[in-house]
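Technical appendix A lists one of the benchmark inputs used to test multi-chain prediction within the project. The record comprises two sequence entries:
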Amino acid sequence: MKNNKKTSPWKSIKVGLLSLLAMIIFAYGFQITKVDLEELRSENRQQSLVRVTRALAQPEIFEYEQVEEIVNYPIYVPCLSDGSQASASERSASEPYIVITPACANPGEIIQVEGFNFAPLTVGPIRFIPGNDPSNVVSLGRVNAETDSDGHFIVDMEIPDRTSDDAQFIRATLRRNIGAPRFSKTAYDTWNKIVETVFLALLATVFGTFLAIPLSFIAARNLMKTVKSPLTSISLSVLGWPLGILLGFVAVRGVGNFSAAIGSNVLVNLAGIIVSPALAWVGLRWALPQEEITRPSQNMRFARLGVILLVVLVSFYGLFQLANLAMSIGQTLEAVLGSFSFLGYFLFQVGDIVAIITPALGGLAAGGALSSILGRLGQIGSEKLPGSTIKTLNLILTTMAGVTVMGLLGRLVEWLYEIGEPMYTLWGPVAVGAIAGLLLATLTKPKESLPIGMVIYSITRTFLNALRSVEALVMAIVFVIAVGIGPFAGVMALGLHTIVSLAKLYSEQVESILSGPLEAIEATGANRLQTIIYAVIPQIVPPYISYTMYRWDINVRMSTIIGFVGGGGIGFLLQQNINLLNYRAASAQMLAIAIVVASMDYISSVLREKAI
Amino acid sequence: MLQIKNLTKIYDGGVKALDNVSFEVPDGQFLAVIGLSGSGKSTLLRCINRLIEPTAGQILWNGEDITAASQEEMRRIRRKIGMVFQHFNLVHRSKVITNVLAGRLGYVNPAWSLLNRFPKEDVEKAIKQLQRVGIAEKAYQRADELSGGQQQRVGIARALMQDPKMVLADEPVASLDPVLAHSIMSHLEDINKNDGVSVLCSLHFLDLVHRYADRVVALNEGRLVFEGLPKDIDDNKFKEIYGRDAERVG
């Protein structure tokens, strides 16, 4: 290739300036991050580093029974003026004993301690015991002695500055491991906590995955781009949500009270559990025929809607009964199962969770259902009714929807900040909502389809991105306050973080699927739900599995440190031991983390290969 | 009878893919749609079942206005229009039988689709359709394990599951070799002649047009430039359809 550009001096100057700038930035970085290699040379630091590194290299996993051989030998500090010497009690020649040369010394002098007849290859400290009582636990100075294969050692020791007229003592304590190694208490604690860690990660991943899947569909541009509705339908759907949630919550709670009134007899529960699904099944079979060639009459459709409503209520009744049964069986099992009582505990907790979330579930289901039914009505209405009627209808409905949304947002603000000023938190927002609704209804053509899908998409994306930028560790702090210190807080924090990050990763996978099958399924007359089930889901199963595994990996790693803020798992233990300078125990925990993370890595890669 | 009146499609970018196209297709006809790549053939076929929303114009099918149909009416209309694609558009990871059963989605209740359930009659019917296109033994294999020709047959079986009154075929043989092309075309011909289903098929090769089509419409840059019998395409007409520099190869 011909280079017909001359190298201009400007270019060289520019490059020079840029390099200079880069160097200045880097130099500033050095100052900011306090890079100081002098610290490395400091003797204190080096000593501690050696000490900590050695401790870390000896994880406290095994321990032994130990036997100690303790020998005291008297010494005068300083030497007595009459030259008399302290004398040790008589010992037979086969017992261990020590000899000190010289027999007395002044503070700061070096003496030689020689030991005989100790067990071979034992280690232990040689210490100076102040005062005249050889059983004194206070000791000064310390030298480590190590016996050779004959049980003999010889060490030098400096006499500390502690003078007395009485004989003081030099004590040799030599320890020896006996018997087989056994797991230390640290090892047991570490095992318990690492199990907790793994399950914490498991629960968070499962819980997060289930909620991330539906979110990922509404955060996928290619699916949401085609969702368009006329304004009438949108306003009615918006109104349908709060109304449906309220109605559903009240209705399901009513069912719950009815179920509680009937009693928590196991037989009654069992009957309820058997009868209600059967009834629901029969009702569903009648109300939802598998195929319909001709269009059913209006009355028929209403009758079906009624039956479905009944079926839903019956199913919720069954759910309450199931919760009751699970709780009573769980309680019984917990008492009798012994070491498997955790199964009973699990059953009881599941029952409790079902009982607690059922009304909320009912509210959400009713909200969704009412919103979609009203939306459908709005859709049909805006297709069939004349434009002017729709315009009027839009003006009313959109204003109402605006008022509802802004009113609820105002309530939220009031609850969060306790402003206590209805002007700002009630009337103001309501007025804004009403005006916005009116404007929207005036500005849009009555039958125009609005890209509501993209609006929902943008809101979901923003929400996901905002939550994703909060680290799980920070979330854990909030949850520790909400549910107390312990692994449950960790599960909640990791679960929430899993939801938002998986939803984002998943939705990117949805966006990259082939559009051909989607088009083909749509062309058969499938509705949106069917298109997702038959064209989207089969395509995203492999990447979803792969991302879930990846997330499970991350969660295991995260759960090892979530304990630093009280979120349960091994991190709690690790942090405690680091703070207590108990580096050998900390080392055992680090080792456990490394083993678990490495094996999870391996297992997940194997599973991923199998699944895809 | 399918009537297309003044159909126009302008894409968001301002590209005019269809420009005032009008023609009619009597029931039971095999209509070939020809034209260069990018001349609007695919857009035309997709406007008929509203996979693409037309910008202006009207499509009437047996008197019903497809362009004005509501979402729910569209579901009923679409399920009577089978569609076959150049790239087959099967769901690769699903079994062949599931791909074929998907043709019934316009009929089955969406609530049952949630549970991935089809009526027993539909499953039997799916096997029959696979027998008809000659690959019943592949029913429980994954769709991507099949060869191109086999995949297209699954595509046809899927369209047949809809009990269609009309089949739209968008270059159904453009990704296949000539032998397979004839085999696929003869399946379409079989559906057309024996079941009385109208077929609108876009094609590239004129010998296929001569061999299978009852009638031809030709598009050039979105405009209808020819409408008539296959034998009427002489060299002059050919140059009009494909441009001055084109040469006949087949």
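Chain A has four domains: 41-61+184-228+454-612, 67-183, 236-384, 385-450. The mean pLDDT of chain A is 85. Comparable benchmark entries are summarised in Table A2.
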